[in-house]
Specification:
TTC38, TPR repeat, repeat, 19 helices, about 375 residues
Length: about 375
C-alpha cells in the first residue's frame, strides 16, 4: 500500500522544481490537495463563486485519486480554502477553472460565470511575475476554453518537456487527447515523462495507471495489464487502474475474468466517487455480453442512475444514456428509465462542447420521445457548426 505523502508547501514545490508564485504555504498545500483529489474530464460544471469555482461546480471525484478526501473537506472545501488563502494565486485559478472546463459540462459561450472565471484568471496572471511554466498553464486553460483543444495540448506538452513531473499538465493533456480521439498521443505523452516519475515522487504510482490506459487504447493489452496491476499492487484503491483492467478484459472478450475481477475488487473501488459509477457500468457491459439483461438493469438502477441523479456529472450522463441504448439495441425494454435521464440531459441541449456528449443527449431525447428537445438539440447544433 502506498504511503500518504504530506501536502507540499512553498519550499517543497520549489524542491520539486515546480515552484508556485505565492507566498502562502497554505495555498500551496491546498493546491496539492486539490490536485490529488480533483476530478478530471467528467466533473460537472455549475456555479462559480467569486474568483475560484467551487460548490456545485465541482461535484465529481478527485483528479488523480478519484476520491474526495473528507479530512480535507473534499474538493469543495479545498477550493474554498484555496481561494481564501490567496485570492490572487494564478495557479489556483488555473486548476479550479481548468477543472470545470475539462469536465465539458459547460462552456464560456453559455456560462457567463465560467467566462468571467477565465477572464479573471487572465487578469490575475497579468498582475504578477509568473514562471514560464505557470504562464503556459494559464494560456493552456484559456486556449481550451476557446475550444482549441489541440493547441491547448501543445502548450501542456511544452510544460512537460521541461517539467515532466507536472501532474496537472499531464492530466489535462491526457484528458484533452482523449476527447480528441488522439490515442497514440495520449499514450506517448505519458511514455515520454514516465521514466522521470521515480517512486519517491508523490502520486507516482498513479502515473502507471495513466500510462496503462494509453497502452490499452492502442491495443498493447499485455503491457497495459502488467502496468495497471503494478499500480494496483502499490495502491489497491486506484480506481483508474481498475478501470483500465476492466477495459482490457472487455477488449479481449474475457467476460468471465472481467466479472471475477470486478467482483473481487469491488470493495476497493466502490467508494471512489464518480469513477465507481463508471466501473459499475463496465461491470454491466459484461452482463450484457452474457445476455444477463436483468442483472445489468439492476446495476443501472442501483448504481448508475442514482449517481446521475445525485451529481449530474457528464460521465454519469454518458454512462446512463449508452447503457439504456445498448439494452434497447438488444431488444430489452427499459420501461420509463429514459424519463429519469431526460431532466439532466435536457439542460445541456445547447452546450455543444463535444459531439460525443451531443450524441448521448440525442439518445435521451429520442428515448424519452421528446421531439421538442430533440429539435432544439439538432437546430442549435446546426447553428453552431
Amino acid at each position: 500500500m502506498a504511503a500518504t505523502s504530506p501536502l507540499r508547501d512553498c519550499q517543497a514545490w520549489k524542491d520539486a522544481r515546480l515552484p508556485l508564485s505565492t507566498t502562502s504555504n497554505e495555498a500551496c498545500k491546498l493546491f496539492d490537495a486539490t490536485l490529488t483529489q480533483d476530478s478530471e474530464w467528467w466533473v460537472d460544471s455549475g456555479g462559480c463563486r467569486g474568483m475560484f469555482f467551487e460548490g456545485a461546480g465541482l461535484t465529481g471525484p478527485p483528479y488523480v485519486k478519484w476520491t474526495n478526501d473528507k479530512s480535507l473537506g473534499g474538493i469543495e472545501g479545498c477550493l474554498s480554502k484555496l481561494k481564501a488563502a490567496d485570492p490572487t494565486f494564478a495557479m489556483g485559478h488555473a486548476i479550479s477553472t481548468g477543472l470545470v472546463l475539462i469536465g465539458t459540462g459547460s462552456s464560456v459561450k453559455l456560462d457567463k460565470e465560467l467566462d468571467l472565471a477565465v477572464k479573471t484568471m487572465m487578469e490575475v496572471s497579468r498582475t504578477q511575475p509568473l514562471t514560464r511554466r505557470e504562464q503556459l498553464h494559464v494560456s493552456a486553460v484559456e486556449t481550451f476554453a476557446k475550444g482549441n483543444f489541440p493547441k491547448a495540448c501543445e502548450l501542456w506538452e511544452q510544460i512537460l518537456q521541461d517539467h515532466p513531473t507536472d501532474m496537472l499538465a499531464l492530466k489535462f493533456s491526457h484528458d484533452a487527447y482523449f476527447y480528441l480521439g488522439y490515442q497514440e498521443q495520449m499514450r506517448d505523452s505519458v511514455a515520454r515523462i514516465y521514466p522521470f516519475w521515480t517512486p519517491d515522487i508523490p502520486l507516482s504510482s498513479y502515473v502507471k495507471g495513466i500510462y496503462s490506459f494509453g497502452l490499452m487504447e492502442t491495443n498493447f493489452y499485455d503491457q497495459a495489464e502488467k502496468l495497471a496491476k503494478e499500480a494496483l499492487s502499490i495502491n489497491p484503491t486506484d480506481a483508474w487502474s481498475v478501470h483500465t483492467v476492466a477495459h482490457i478484459h472487455e477488449m479481449k472478450a474475457e467476460i468471465k475474468d472481467g466479472l471475477e475481477f470486478m467482483q473481487h475488487s469491488e470493495t476497493l473501488w466502490k467508494d471512489s466517487d464518480m469513477l465507481a459509477c463508471h466501473n459499475y457500468w463496465h461491470w454491466a457491459l459484461y452482463l450484457i455480453e452474457k445476455g444477463e439483461y436483468e442483472a445489468a438493469l439492476t446495476i443501472y438502477d442501483t448504481h448508475i442512475l442514482p449517481s446521475l441523479q445525485a451529481n449530474g456529472a457528464m460521465l454519469d450522463v454518458v454512462d446512463s444514456c449508452s447503457m439504456l441504448y445498448r439494452l434497447q439495441m438488444e431488444g430489452v425494454s427499459v420501461g420509463q428509465r429514459w424519463q429519469d435521464v431526460l431532466p439532466v440531459t435536457r439542460k445541456h441541449s445547447r452546450d455543444h462542447t463535444l459531439l460525443f456528449n451531443d450524441a448521448h443527449f440525442l439518445m435521451a431525447s429520442l428515448g424519452a420521445h421528446d421531439p421538442q428537445t430533440t429539435q432544439e438539440l439538432l437546430t442549435t447544433l446546426r447553428d453552431a457548426s
